[in-house]
Amino acid sequence: MIQLDINNDLESLQLKASLIIRDMQFSHENAQKLKELILAENMDTVDFIREFNAIVRTSKSHHWKIAILLNNLKERYIHELELISWTPIILICLGLILLLFLIKKFKLKKVIKKSIRKFFKISLNLIERIGALFAYFVPLVSIYAAYVPRLIGSYPYLNFIFPEFLRDSVDFYIRYPWVFNYIYFFGMMYGVMLFKKPKPRFIRFHLVRGLMLFAFQGIPDACVKAFQSSESLTQDQIVSTNLCLFAINLSWILPCIYQAITHTYPRSSFIRDAVEINVGRDKDDGFKWWNR
């Protein structure tokens, strides 16, 4: 809008009006009127302001602005719409219609629901296996950290079973042993045994079993330190002892990893009872001891 000012002449008002409407859009009729106003030579300033404000005021409420906006959107996205290949879209729609027809015709709804339930059951089983497998990662890292750095110089073939991610984990374990020795141990104690997390009992079973292996690792580790401090043993004897203890520890943990992958439990009633007692009894699922 232009305010009335007696000090403004017609030319300055026309210049001001042209600046105001520079970024505005008008209908063809109003645009012609504005053009005539701005190009007018002999016109009273009061009449100019009144007519200009009237045109601008009416233009703001006209519905043609919607059409202009839609036209701008069309021009902006028309190129993207032209690039769309409608053939695959039509084929997908026809396929969905055909699928719905077949489901209704042959009463496949129950079959589909059964398949979905089976899929989720398989997925949950797979998640349990992966979760149980990760339960032995920390014990495996502790075994590697205790023996492999001492053995790899004498037995280079150990590099074949020492991948890069295990090297990084062992390096982290050696630099920050308290993270594993305290946070992992007490985290498992409280999370699994006290709060019964995670919910699948199979995962908790292997988490507790991995924790027990991690705790038992302290026994052979103490033996290694005792052997290393002995002056009566040669370097070859110390290396051989480390290799023997490394093999013994692997013989403990590899069957656990196999049982986690195959979703099975240990056959030994002694081992299973020892783990189940630490896992505890679940109150909400009516758990009964496995051999009762």
TrEMBL record:
Q: Which Pfam families does this one have?
A: TIC20
Q: Where in the cell is it found?
A: Plastid, Chloroplast membrane
UniProt keywords, alphabetically: Chloroplast, Membrane, Plastid, Transmembrane, Transmembrane helix
Per the record, membrane topology reads: Multi-pass membrane protein
Q: Which residues cross the membrane?
A: 83-103, 124-147, 176-195
Report the InterPro entries cross-referenced here: Tic20
Record's GO cellular component terms? chloroplast membrane
Q: Which domain of life is it from?
A: Eukaryota
What the record says about family reads:
Belongs to the Tic20 family.
Question: What is this protein's name?
Answer: Conserved hypothetical chloroplast protein
Q: Which organism is it from?
A: Vaucheria litorea
Source gene? Answer: ycf60
